[in-house]
């Protein structure tokens, strides 16, 4: 299923939502943990033996948690189907139950999945909260922030290390396994980065277009130039129709000798404007690479999913 959306402001950080609940004030000043999340309060009971219970806002982060946690983590992804929109997701009682039992909660932050903070508030739980946007170190103050930070491979590598630390704090007996799993996962990420660098070596400066800013961290890491009018991609991201003049300017990118080489289109959103853009790309002989915000049905592995998108981009750019 393809969804369309009207998005809330992306300026509300997850930490602000958490700070609004008196039940969560203990998160700010508590003391243990060596990872990237907010530590559990001092004096919390020692976790019972068994897997670390993890809740991820989307299955992308659930996949990273599984890679790091292995058999020692029990991971629940709140959003685990391609037809659910994180920006507009309405949580269920079952989600609140999962969060109430979680040791670690992973959220994108940056205004992308505000439902995660609301779930923590509703559950009254005090899990270690990992805000990936905050963890990333990316500049959230530079213009309109691109919150799709899981397309930044360095951010995902940093997340793996943070989770290894947070999982070890909850389950010290399996700390070595968490560190080893994170190392193996980061080695796979390095393989993806090598593919991205190969694209950069062959196609640096090549102009591409996007329907939304979703893949732009990957696009820039590959040395490619986003030629999309910002007014178009941001309008689509916000669920709005771009002005007619902006749409025509965008459509013109797919015609003539200076046309863009590839269109990266968000497969999970569709509007009359994005349909027109895809049709213009096809008519102009410009390959369309579909990207997604969550894992496709039947996929549970981050590296397989992201690697497939990188391979498709490379193949599209290599077309003559």
Give me the secondary-structure topology.
Blueprint: H1 14-19, H2 26-29, E1 52-58, H3 59-69, E2 73-79, H4 93-100, E3 104-107, H5 115-123, E4 128-131, H6 132-136, H7 153-170, H8 175-203, E5 207-210, H9 216-221, E6 225-226, H10 230-237, H11 244-251, E7 262-266, H12 272-283, E8 288-291, H13 302-318
Order of helices and strands: HHEHEHEHEHHHEHEHHEHEH
State the shape.
Answer: globular
Unreliable stretches (pLDDT < 50, length at least 5) are: 3-13, 15-34, 38-48
Q: Structural class of the secondary elements?
A: alpha/beta
Main sheet strand line-up: 2-1-3-4
The level of helicity is 40-55%
| C-alpha-based Rg, rounded | 20 Å
Strand content: 5-15%
Integer average pLDDT: 87
**What's the end-to-end separation, in Å?**
32 Å
**Tally of helical runs:** 13
How many beta-strand segments? Answer: 8
* Largest sheet entry: 4 strands, parallel
Report a brief summary of the structure:
With 320 residues, the protein is of the alpha/beta class. 44% of the residues lie in helices and 12% in strands. Helix 12 links the parallel strand 7 and strand 8.
For this entry, give a set of tags.
single chain; 320 residues; 8 strands; 12% strand
Write a structural description.
The protein is α/β, with parallel strands linked by helices. Helix content is 44%, strand content 12%. The chain has 13 helices and eight strands. It has helices at 14-19, 26-29, 59-69, 93-100, 115-123, 132-136, 153-170, 175-203, 216-221, 230-237, 244-251, 272-283, 302-318; strands at 52-58, 73-79, 104-107, 128-131, 207-210, 225-226, 262-266, 288-291. A four-stranded parallel β-sheet has the order 2-1-3-4, sandwiched between helices. Strand 5 (207-210), helix 9 and strand 6 (225-226) form a beta-alpha-beta unit. The longest helix is centred in the middle third of the chain and has 29 residues, at 175-203. It is globular. The two termini are 32 Å apart. Mean pLDDT is 87; it is low at 3-13, 15-34 and 38-48.
